[in-house]
Amino acid sequence: MSTTEMSNTDMNMRGKIIFYEDRNFMGRHYECMSDCADMSSYMSRCHSCRVESGCFMVYDRPNYMGNQYFFRRGEYGDYMSMMGWRDWIRSCRMIPMYRGSYRMRIYERENFGGQMYEMMDDCDSIMDRYRMSDCMSCHVMDGHWLMYEHPHYRGRMMYMRPGEYRSFREMGYGGMRFMSMRRIMDSWY
Fold first, then answer.
1. Of the residues 64, 95, 126, the one at which a domain ends
2. Measured in whole angstroms, how far is the alpha carbon of residue 162 from the centre of its chain?
3. Which residues form the Beta/gamma crystallin 'Greek key' domain (predicted)?
4. Can you give the residue range of the structural domain that contains 171?
């Protein structure tokens, strides 16, 4: 493979998102191809975006905090109305493309306590599948996942990459219960 082909492949795997100050892709814009912890140094506001490649989690507060939403390739001309947000995107995290097995352990209590179940595929309701009424910690061994507040992949969400998550409450999700989980698949890119 030539250097040119290799760099094009790297660009496609990296992802690219363009943020616009105004709705419908108007006004100043900022192109992003990696994580951005605080967009305020690039733009005063953001009301629309276009994902040219890859997948991204966007956040309504700096430093990957606050409400999050998953964006994949496509155009989001008025995402604030679509998601019901009152504020605009303040930070974003690129989700790396992943091809491999998926494995996550979910726990009923903090610090990996209570019932434990190992998941390798999507789960549209932990209550229906496992008779588990709450999930308060998890360990993501393989893959990248989205956890949702309600069954059937609805409500607020949280992006989970490989690692240990001992307490959702300490992460700022104390009043939120995660009731469904979905793998971020390479076909989404």
1. 95
2. 13
3. 15-53, 54-96, 143-185
4. 103-188
